[in-house]
Amino acid sequence: MNLIRVMPAKGRDTSSHPSRSGSGYRSAQQLASPGLSSLLGRHGVTIDDYTAFCSRLPHASYVVQWGGAHVWKVAGKVFAIGGWNSGGEGLYVTFKCTPLAFEVLKDMPGLRPAPYLASRGLLWIQRTGAQRLDGAGLRDHLRDSHRIVAAGLPKKVQRELGLAQT
User: Fold this and answer.
1) In whole angstroms, what is the distance from residue 143 CA to residue 17 CA?
2) Domain 3-161: top CATH class
């Protein structure tokens, strides 16, 4: 079983959350809070699906930060953010994309420019529902986001991690 190092943001008390306490090592199955799968399933992708998929991408690491967001990084650079809407239901997933994908996705139902990121000129989309982007489409965009972020790493880091494009 692969274990993932869960690293809470500095200065946060994470002792009350089951996936953020103890040794810090959790399996992908343990990363999801109990009962969230059924709550999030109405959008077609559960927190378990999101976590399991991101954990399989090369050199992906997981951290909980920004008020409980499930953040995935490659070499310390964010490529995906999973969280909940203000009502506490529905998994929202935010990912980096190409300029063309941003233009196509930004006005589609169930998608929007990512708050705080897109308003600063960054090409990030937030999936708020499955109206136009199903689970398979989301996985494709998460894979692309990982690729985009990895390609932006210094060449030396890319070579060290075996991510260098030839």
Assistant:
1) 28
2) alpha beta
Strands, sheet with 25-27, edge to edge from the N-terminal-most edge strand: 25-27, 3-8, 60-65, 69-74, 77-84, 91-96, 124-127, 111-113
Q: What is the pTM of this model?
A: 0.72
| Amino acid occupying residue 102 | F
| Domain assignments of the chain as residue spans, ordered by start | 3-161
- Residue-wise pLDDT tens digits, 79-121: 999 987 666 567 899 999 999 999 999 999 999 999 888 888 8
